[in-house]
Amino acid sequence: MARRRRSPPPQQPLEHRILLTATLCLLAAGAVMVYSASSARTLLQGQGDGTGYLVKYVVYAAVGLVVMQLLARGGLGVVRRVTGPLLATSFVLLLAVKVPHVGIEVNGARRWLGAGPVQFQPSELMKLALVLYAVRVLADRPQTVRSVRDLASPLGVVAGAALLLVASQPDLGTALVIAFTLTALLVAAGVPFRFLLAGAAIGALLVAIFAIAEPYRRARLTTFLDPWAHANGAGFQAVQGQIAIGSGGLTGRGLGASIQKVFFLPEAHTDFILAVIGEELGVLGVWVLLLLYGLVGYGGLRAARRARGAYAALLAAGITALILSQALLNVFAVLGLAPLTGVPLPFISSGSSSLLVLLAGMGLLLNVAGGGQAHLEAVSQGSRRGEADPHRGGRDGRARRARAGGRRRAAS
Length: 412
Hints:
mainly alpha
């Protein structure tokens, strides 16, 4: 008997391959640049052999990739069921940060939980939990987008409480990322423009009040308007970042040859890693990085457009908006186009909490982009045993009917 040939595995859709390739390229670039931005200073300060931040990045990236693959191959129904507990857990952790001797304070901000080198930032988890909650509300109650009252409760109340807790840490950057992401999600859900305009006006007023309420936040705002006038004070970091990018020119000084990262640029391996990229790899390196984020945006929006069902489409749009909002806010701050907010560059900066959460979000995005490939394969195995397959439809069903019709015409 002739051996039964095994059919090759089905090829993933284009958007899935684009997203996976861009993510792996960003992670590879992140590992290289984290080591380049941190090794020289840690060596000079006597903190080991200079690979500490690289090892930490690689470990968290490996864990994040495992989580990404599990979410990419699982079912979205499980995600819907755990959204409520995940949101509740995020609120509990944000409240725990405020408890004395529980939350960890760094540079005047109390944002972390944990002990020693193992720390977690609950606001990062809240970003993903809020996106999942908003997607579920908007998908289950599509009429919500037509009424301010329905939109404000419960989505507006929950989002407002989360934003208040995050901003009070204080962490205005993460609060802005959440606000931009939810706004993009509301646009994707079809909220009328007049609602968005009114919400944007109220949000801008609240941000302005929050920004001028504390002296250091007022200093950041005035520094953003003219950082060179405060080059030796509040504008030091912004000025050094612009010097780093400007000195890199078109092609850069060369990988590892940055001067600013060693002696002048604070937070070179986290918030201002883009400045190190600009100095070492030049404008071309920055443009390649922006191209990779552009590919994430293209793949994510393509996945949203081709998704099956409102929940999957809104989920893809929300995750894509989360990644791009954080990336653009970081890029604008480093380039001097926005006030400094302390937001890490997605997949590139040395930030364990952000890396884990964004890789988990990318797993959900890959799940939507793949069209539930793992679930369909499991069902198709049952259908070969003679069982009905209710999940097959759409283009597959039309293709079977077309082939059947062609055989009948050929027989006639």
